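Review the following:
>
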Amino acid sequence: MAGKIKNNKHLINAPAGSGKTTYIRNELKSICLNNPESRILCITYTNRAADELKKNLEGANITVSTIHSYINDLISPFYSHKEVLDLYWEIYAEKIKNRIKNVTNDENIKKSNQYYIEKYGELTEKAVQENISELSYGETPFTSLYTGKLSHDDLLMFANKLIKRYPILLRKIGDKYNYIFIDEYQDTSAYVLDIFYDAVENRENIQIYLFGDRMQQIYKNYDGSFEERLKKFDTSDQLGTNFRSIGKIVSILNNIYNDALFKQYSTENNIDVVPDIMPQVIISSNTQECIYELQKEFPEILTLYLMNKEKYQEIGAQNLYNAYENMEKYSFGRKYSPTDILSDMSSDNPDILMKFLFLLNNIMSFYANENYGMVISLCKKESKYFDSSQFKIKKHTDKQRIKSKFDKIQAEYEKEGCLIRDIVECLFANGFIPEAVKNDFEESTEYQSVLDIKVIEVKNLARYLNMPHISTQHGVKGESHSSVIFMASDNNSTPNVRMYPFFELWSNLEFSLPQFETLFYSYNRMIEKVEAELGMKISELTAETHNKSEKNKAILVRYSNEVLEKYQGNILFDALCKDDFISYLAKQNVGNAKKIFKITKMEGILTAYKLFYVGCSRARKNLIVVVDAYKVNRFKEAFMNKMKEIGFSVFCK
């Protein structure tokens, strides 16, 4: 691969089980061996992936980094430059002005504004601008407008705008590296892909490789705006061997993908392996009882559940879910959903408070089990949250001091009715967390409702997520398992998953992921154009703004005719959207208007398609899909035929 020069931009499709990490590591070793002077940059999506790739590859000429760490390192030397501060103000001045005025009359913003006045004496646009002398990356999902602390998303957006204004910054990439590897490109923001594309364009001395699989795109980082540029990448190299699953499951995965360009092949060792139970779909009138019986019969089987509001209620973490669902940053249609935040116990959780609470629960569990070595080790390691100076042990009295303080924290943590706010205060009072960390939590308007939730909900959630044979479908890119149950579920809030509408569509139509994504991205851009011209969301239309506004009605009629002309005949559009547009043009009222130019159903079906594929791909040997008989009753025969056609046996219980 490294020797090909016909195009310096390469896209390597790497489906589930294709050994992508091993392949990338071998390529990096090969370059180092054959071109020892080459300088290599390897960008990953998560800390876990970065750590995995770094194994045995530490060297002066290889840089392995997460996306956010690299972008922050790239632009942070300029955070205090006047031109950079001016750009910040140019982008955020209007938002800062509205926040100062508290135009939404938000009580939390009112408290935050009062805190600023107490700290700085006054709160005006001029005061905020004068007090921001340097930007920073806050490693949080929320940009702190008054302090210039950029969020995860805004860091990438800001870097993109900064580099487009000052393209000389691209030379920091182009002059430094000969090879650039970007892992999980499908989850990489178009802002970042644009930066690297521009850095290597017309530079023959740099080769860039994107690795990933569109079917595993479960985060909303990518918006489809890089599609035209993706077409310019060389796609001749692909990872076509599935090292994970036996032949029968690989065949099912190929049939679900339904695209000859992305067909996988089993290894010789796996191709003829006979499963303990043939891949099967069980249509059950009582899915929970069905799963319970399967778990009794196969105690080691992994059950994949979709985390939805009902599941959090069952677990005993409903208030925690509600608090995150009500945050604007995690609301319907945003990049991260409450489930993304509440089901990720790793260091890659993008929410600083939830990441801290999972970490703290882990530490307190070690302490309760008298594993003091792990407690000290974790507190020292996580210096972003904990004051590591408090955990230095030079003499026996240091151990006594730490234990005495931890006893107080444990007493608070175990106290009935203890709030998250209480445990944060207790940790601060005992010197374990610095004031800056406490302020990050307590000064955030978004976190006020979370801080008032009982700690028991965090414990309940962590206990569920740690169950050995339970996994969340939203965490589908986890490790493989010998035997898997996929529980088919819908969720019409966040995450938006329409599994049964997907099954119905899929049972009656032949389509592939590229077909669906091409329509999805194009149709989504059309909606953005319509809403920009209207000056409002379609969902915000009222009788006043539609029926009595000839201008708005004319916009919708014009775009409706344009949509029908452009998409009519596309089997997916015809099945999902066509009738609503015909109805609106026949009867132009606000009710029919709200049914057109909607992306939620299409998005939910596309998400379900991906979740179903990746959920099935986690099985190495045995795979069972459990579906609700009531929900497939209307299209049961077509569904059964479809499942048999792709390789499942079907049973009704």
Q: What stands out?
A: The radius of gyration is 26 Å. Residues 273-304+473-652 form one domain. The mean pLDDT is 91. The first strand starts at residue 9 and ends at 13.
